[in-house]
Amino acid sequence: MSPFRVIDHTSDIAVVIEACDREELLSEGARVLCHILTGNRKGTVPCDMEGRMRWRRIRIGFNNFDSLFIDFLNCVLKIVDMCGYLPVSVVPRLGARRAVVKVGFVKAGQGGIVREIKAATHHNYSVRKTPSGLSTTVTFDV
């Protein structure tokens, strides 16, 4: 069973993401971005793997995890948009009010990015506790 499934939604794309904890939710969020950007359902990334991975530290202050998750996704999308890099590795360190998330990016290969995502939105968004961890539905403006 995949840890996420895509839900049909009007002109946006909504995705249900499930994870064991907050750190895994951040990693799965980046994997979902790759899936939508590349159209690859397996979660693997068409990229220039011979090129070196570029690591970026994303620092985000937050009042609650809900806002951190959306802010993180939008920071990653900004790097994708500006540089043409795809996120392939996520190493989060979460504090009480600040997060430092180390993200490994690789250059998208020929035809790698097939869809633009404008933003992750707060539309119908919340992170819920489940018996197996956490679940959220994120709506992306495409």
Mean pLDDT score: 87
Query: Which architecture name does CATH use?
Result: 3-Layer(bab) Sandwich
Q: What is the name of the CATH superfamily?
A: Archease domain
What portion of the residues fall into strands of 2 or more residues? 35-45%
Helix content: 25-40%
**Rg calculated over all Cα atoms:** 14 Å
Distance between the termini: 26 Å
Determine the structural class based on helices, strands and strand pairing: alpha+beta
Q: What would the principal axes of the Cα set say about the shape?
A: globular
Largest beta-sheet details? 5 strands, antiparallel
As for the number of domains, it is 1
Number of strands: 8
Describe, in plain words, how this protein is organized in 3D.
This protein is of the alpha+beta class. It has one domain (4-141): Archease, Possible Chaperone, Chain: A, domain 1, CATH 3.55.10.10. It is 25% helix and 39% strand. It has 2 helices and 8 strands; from the N terminus they run E-E-H-E-H-E-E-E-E-E. The protein has helices spanning 22-38, 65-83; strands spanning 4-7, 12-19, 54-61, 85-94, 98-107, 119-121, 127-130, 133-141. Strands 1, 2, 6, 7 and 8 form a 5-stranded antiparallel sheet that branches. Strands 3-5-4 form a 3-stranded antiparallel sheet, with helices on one face. Strand 4 (85-94) and strand 5 form a beta hairpin. Helix 1 packs parallel to helix 2 (65-83). It is globular and about 40 Å long. The two termini are 26 Å apart. The mean pLDDT is 87.
